[in-house]
Design goal:
Number of strands: 2
Strand order of the largest sheet: 1-2
Distance between the termini: 37 Å
Order of helices and strands: EEHHH
Radius of gyration: 14 Å
Oligomer: single chain
Largest sheet: 2 strands, antiparallel
Strand content: 15-25%
Number of domains: 1
CATH class: Alpha Beta
CATH architecture: Roll
Helix content: 40-55%
Length: 93
Amino acid sequence: MNKGRHFRITVAGIDTGAALSFDHVNHDDIIAIAERVRATSRLDPDIAAATAIGLKLLGESMLRSKRDPLFDPLREPLRDVILALKQRTAMPA
């Protein structure tokens, strides 16, 4: 079994009723991160949650596929976006 936190991700179409679910292991609590980004990012709450969860899913997929060149063009830009988001959502001391 993979180490980390286990999540079931479900995307359901509001208009179509179609749904897709898959299991995902992430080293972070992506729900807590999405909630923090919603509360502190100054983005629309739905955009904030989608951004946080999307970044965590993509980032973890890239970590688990380090040798796959598919992700090479995204590595630096994704890191920059994550760092900028972390600065925006930093909790005051």
